[in-house]
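Lab meeting, item 3. Inverse folding demo.
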C-alpha cells in the first residue's frame, strides 16, 4: 500500500513535465476526462502528501512516507555516500517514489532532469539512509556495452 494519487503517478510515468505545451495540455484534458470520479485519482498536486512526511530508520528498516526498505548491514562504509542533505518534504516524496519502485522489484532507476537539479544528491542521500554502496560510472558518447559490463580490477597498482 503506497500513498499517492493515480493522476500524479500517471503524470510521472508518462513524463508529462517534459512534453511540449500543446501535447501536455491535450494529455491533461484526457486525464481529467478519464479519471473524473475515480477513487484515488487525486489532483496530482503533492502539497497534501508533503505534510508530515519524514524519513525514519527503525529496527533496520527505512520508512519514508509509508514506503519501506531494509537497511543493509554488510556494506563497505567506504562505498556508501555521505552527503549533507536537508529533509525538504518534496525531496522526501521523490525518495519515496524511488523506494516504491525499488520495493516492487525494480533494479535500475533513471532520473531525468536538467544539470544541477539534485538528481545525484537525492540518490546519494537515499543510498546513505539505506547504507547501500554506490559505484560511479562516467558515461559519454563513446561508451560501449562492453565498457559497462567489464569490471576493472586493480592488481599491483595497475588496472587489469
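The presenter then showed the designed sequence:
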Amino acid at each position: 500500500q503506497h500513498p499517492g494519487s493515480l493522476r500524479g503517478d500517471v503524470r510521472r510515468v508518462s513524463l508529462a513535465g517534459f512534453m511540449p505545451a500543446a501535447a501536455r495540455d491535450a494529455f491533461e484534458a484526457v486525464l481529467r476526462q478519464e479519471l473524473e470520479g475515480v477513487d484515488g485519482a487525486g489532483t496530482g498536486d503533492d502539497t497534501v502528501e508533503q505534510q508530515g512526511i519524514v524519513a525514519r530508520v527503525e529496527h533496520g528498516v527505512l520508512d519514508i512516507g509509508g514506503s519501506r526498505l531494509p537497511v543493509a548491514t554488510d556494506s563497505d562504509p567506504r562505498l556508501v555516500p555521505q552527503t549533507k542533505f536537508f529533509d525538504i518534504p518534496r525531496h522526501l516524496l521523490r525518495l519515496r517514489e524511488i523506494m516504491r519502485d525499488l520495493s516492487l522489484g525494480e533494479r535500475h532507476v533513471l532520473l531525468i532532469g536538467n544539470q544541477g537539479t539534485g538528481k545525484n544528491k537525492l540518490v546519494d542521500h537515499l543510498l546513505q539512509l539505506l547504507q547501500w554502496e554506490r559505484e560511479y560510472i562516467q558515461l559519454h558518447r563513446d561508451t560501449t556495452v562492453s565498457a559497462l559490463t567489464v569490471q576493472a580490477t586493480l592488481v599491483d597498482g595497475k588496472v587489469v
